[in-house]
Amino acid sequence: MASPNPRKRAALSAKAIADAASWYCAFILVALVLLSIFRESSLILTDDHHRVIGFKGNHLFSRPCDEIYVVGEGETLHTISDKCGDPFIVENNPHIQDPDDVFPGLLIKITPQKSI
Fold first, then answer.
1. Which of 19, 22, 56, 75 is most buried by a 10 A CB count?
2. CA-based end-to-end distance of the chain
């Protein structure tokens, strides 16, 4: 019996190494994705109705009410008004035609009322 060609053996060996390396990378990638999903879900704070109210750690917990405010997911004009102390959001933002039509990313002007 003739022994296999050394080039052929080297090619088969390289293919086996490449195959093993690709499976290893795929396994690591799946593990990282799963880890990030579980880690992210443990950082989210929710209220009794399972609504997101903030994040732990260096993430968003209580957003400041700057003069220009970007509406976040699940926020309403009422919650923003309570949070920022501005009862006149609709009056100060003429681009808001319908107070019920507020969406994430909407820019609104906030003018907090000073307490006496």
1. 75
2. 100
Residue with tokens 């390396």: 21
Give me Rg for the CA atoms of the chain: 28
* Amino acid symbol at 67: E
pLDDT tens over the chain, length 116 residues: 555 677 777 777 888 898 888 999 998 988 888 877 766 555 555 555 555 555 454 444 444 677 888 898 888 999 888 888 888 888 989 998 888 888 999 999 998 776 54
Query: Nearest 5°: phi and psi at 53?
Result: -115, -10
> Which residues are within 8 A (CB) of 92 and not within 5 positions of it... i.e. 6 or more apart?
86, 109, 110, 111
